[in-house]
Amino acid sequence: MLLSYYHTYQEAGTDEAGRGCLAGPVTASAVILPPDFKHPLLNDSKQLSEAKRSLLRPIIEKEALSFSVCHILPEKIDEINILNASILAMHNSLKKLSFAPEFIIVDGNRFKPFSNIPHQCIVKGDSKYMSIAAASILAKTYRDEYMEKLHQDFPMYMWNKNKGYPTEEHRNAIKKHGISPQHRKSFRLLPEQLTLDF
C-alpha cells in the first residue's frame, strides 16, 4: 500500500529501470504529482503487469504537474559505471522537469545532491510513495519501448521479450552471435567468460 507523500509540499520522485541489464540504456524518470493525485493501481512497476503499467502511463503523464524521462546509453555506462550512470539518468530527468521541485525522493540508497535541492533516499520507495512509483512506471515503460525498437535491428537477442536482462536465452544468444553495439562491455556478459574481444 502506497503511503502517499513524503512531504506535503511539491516533491519529485525519481527512479530508474534497467540497471541490471546486459544491453541497452539505463532509464530514469522524475515525476511531480499534484497533492490530490490517487489511483488504486499505482504501485512499484515491478509489482504490476505490463498491461497495468501501460494503462497507468498515460494517466501519470496527463495528471502529473511535470514529468520527464532520460536514457543513458551503454557507451556512457561503460565509461562511468552503472551506479554513476543511474544517478546521471536521474539527475538529467530532474533537469528536464518544467519547474524545480522543493524536495526530491529517490528510490534506493544511493544518490548525489542535485542543484542544492534537499533529497531523501528511500529503500523500496517505489512501493511506498506515489511519485516514486509513478517514476518507476514511466522509466520501465519507456525503457521497454526503447528495447522493443532495438529488437527490430537485433532480433537474435530477443530484446522484445527479455528487454536486455541476463536471461538464459539472452546469454545463449550472446554466446552464439557475439555482442552488439548495444551491449555493456563493462558487464560480465557470460558467466564463464574471462575476456571478450572487442
From TrEMBL:
One of its GO terms (biological process) is DNA replication, removal of RNA primer. Its cofactor is Mn(2+); Mg(2+). Manganese or magnesium. Binds 1 divalent metal ion per monomer in the absence of substrate. May bind a second metal ion after substrate binding. Keywords: Cytoplasm, Endonuclease, Hydrolase, Manganese, Metal-binding, Nuclease. InterPro entries: RNase_HII, RNase_HII/HIII, RNase_HII/HIII_dom, RNaseH-like_sf, RNaseH_sf. It catalyses: Endonucleolytic cleavage to 5'-phosphomonoester. Pfam families: RNase_HII. PROSITE patterns: RNASE_H_2. GO terms for cellular component: cytoplasm; ribonuclease H2 complex. Residues 9-198 form the RNase H type-2 domain. It comes from the Bacteria. GO terms for molecular function: manganese ion binding; RNA binding; RNA-DNA hybrid ribonuclease activity. Belongs to the RNase HII family. This is Ribonuclease HII. It comes from Imtechella halotolerans K1. The gene is rnhB.
